[in-house]
Amino acid sequence: MNRKKSSALLQQFLFVGPSTIFFILIMIIPFLLGLYYSFTNWNGVSSKIDWVGFDNFVTIFTNDDKFRDAFWFTTRFTVLGVILTNLLGFLLAYFLTKPLKTRNVLRTIFFMPNVIGGLLLGFIWQFIFVKGFAAIGNATNLGFFNLPWLGTKGTAFWAIVIVFVWQTAGYLMVIYISSLNNVPKDILEAAEIDGASRGQVLRSIIIPLVMPAVTVCLFLAISWSFKMFDLNLSLTKGGPFGSTESVAMNIYNEAYTNNRLGLGTAKAVIFFIVVAIITSLQVRFTKSKEVEA
Amino acid sequence: METMKKYRLNTLATEIIMIIVALLFLVPFYFLFVNSVKTFGELLTDSAGLPTAFEWSNYSRAWNITNFPLAFWNSLVVTVVSNLLLAMLSAMTAYQMVRRNTRFNQLMFALFVAAMVIPFQSIMIPLVKVTATLGINNSLYGLIICYLGFGVPLSVFLFHGFVKSIPVEIEEAATVDGASGYGVFFRVVFPLMKPMFVTVIILNTLWIWNDYLLPSLILQSAELRTIPIATFAFFGQYTKQWDLALPALVLGIMPVIIFFLAMQKYIIEGITQGAVKG
């Protein structure tokens, strides 16, 4: 009996131990340390770290325009980016579930931008916005392409939105396609026989039935856009004049450009709380809209 | 007959519109490839047209300056080793957590799930300090350890849902036949988990291969650079030198594009599975 118990313990240790140790070392300890550092004036250089109470949080909320701007930028970007990429992803999926001959090739093309990392995509699009759009503008005389895309605050914002949607829509499309394929054919046929228009079928049958996929896709898109860093860094570096600096980039700069690591971790704690609240609210909201066929 | 014809016309119209949209999607790749073989002068005066002559020396220069083979090797080592360990450890953990539902395992699983909402940027600053204290910063194996820590929650979560769907009777039959606890897992359960291995490995590969921020914080030496880091360093030095930058970018995206085209079926399946479970 005793031998059996100790061998069960050994198996528990071998199977759960390693992943638990890595997890605690890499996630839990830094997370707890971060909570502690957010109440200090840690600067990364001096070994003397003083407890400063809520000073960092007071500074962030009352005296940090850049963080406020970064939050506002990230919020606007998230709202627009999430809506547009989901709309495009759903539309692509909706049409690609029709019996098109080129369906598979099209699916491959729409998905392809997604396998490339945000950092390289940002550099590629830098060239497109600076040289490519100018060339199209010259050839077509369309004002849209002759804008200084990365040069002004308004256009730089849209430039990031465009690249984000181009990159992520294909991923969401894949999820929507699998969900659309699961909509029972007999319900659609019954609706058609009853004389429902295509718009009615979409609104009253298809959309309610793909709500679980909407939950997943909104969750993914919110989490990508709210945490954006790579694309931001390589496409605009937060410019012009810091107008496209995301929260993640603001945290990074506070810690590694300004060397105020205590303040940076305080921002990181706020960032974590906001992300946790948004994602849990969103999942709860969309789940309440799910129906079963 | 009437509706049949209308249906075909509609489908044809949809098909044409979708092909046009797809071509628009490809425009950035057109600009990238076409201009990567132009001379600097031609690239500035005519970025839309096809190249008049192929300037392949752009590629050899970019290849040498970025030290592409080394960056590729570093990316490959980190991605492959992290993936194998991550999938293996997570599968074992998830299996144990489902089949031995002790209070400790319940608590750990709850922690894994909760940790999935923690954004990387929320813990990166103290993480750098932790890795320095442990002496695992500025090394590929240190980076791999970080990926294990960050990857475990989602991977365990995905395997956890999958193991629950495996009927326990199969394992009981194996035990009756004399298999040990390890034998049951490695000979019976492990092969059944294959579809979920594909999903987990695909999701983790796309994440780790393309990741920039974590390796940029952990690795300092030039000889340890992965592809994203090498590309970033290169851009810092050769801003606006598009005749070098574009071929460097083509080199940088080629491995993952080839991987995608070869493994497309599995990638699409993996993402669908991952999303359904997540």
Automatic annotation (TrEMBL), chain A:
Membrane disposition: Multi-pass membrane protein
UniProt organism field: Paenibacillus glucanolyticus
Matches recorded under Gene3D superfamilies: MetI-like
Tell me, what is an example of a GO biological process annotation in this record? Answer: transmembrane transport
Q: Which UniProt keywords apply?
A: Cell membrane, Membrane, Transmembrane, Transmembrane helix, Transport
Q: Which residues form the ABC transmembrane type-1 domain?
A: 71-282
The answer to whether UniProt assigns keyword Cytoplasm to this entry is: no
Entry-linked Pfam families: BPD_transp_1
**Annotated TM spans:** 12-37, 77-97, 109-136, 156-177, 205-226, 261-281
Determine if Amino-acid biosynthesis is one of this entry's keywords. no
Subcellular locations according to the entry? Cell membrane
The record's InterPro entries line, in alphabetical order, gives: ABC_transporter_permease, MetI-like, MetI-like_sf
What this protein is called in its record is ABC transporter permease
Q: Which GO terms describe its cellular component?
A: plasma membrane
TrEMBL record, chain B:
From the record, give the transmembrane residue ranges: 12-33, 71-95, 107-128, 140-163, 184-209, 244-263
GO terms (BP aspect): transmembrane transport
- Give the way it sits in the membrane: Multi-pass membrane protein
Q: Where in the cell is it found?
A: Cell membrane
Establish whether keyword Cell membrane is in the entry.
yes
Q: Tell whether Transmembrane helix is among the UniProt keywords.
A: yes
| CDD domains per the UniProt record, alphabetical | TM_PBP2
Q: Which residues form the ABC transmembrane type-1 domain?
A: 72-263
Q: Which UniProt keywords apply?
A: Cell membrane, Membrane, Transmembrane, Transmembrane helix, Transport
Q: What is one cellular component GO term in this UniProt entry? A: plasma membrane
PANTHER family reported for this sequence: ABC TRANSPORTER PERMEASE PROTEIN MG189-RELATED, ABC TRANSPORTER PERMEASE PROTEIN MG189-RELATED-RELATED
Q: Which family does it belong to?
A: Belongs to the binding-protein-dependent transport system permease family.
Instruction: Report the protein name in the record.
Output: Sugar ABC transporter permease
Source organism of this protein record: Paenibacillus glucanolyticus
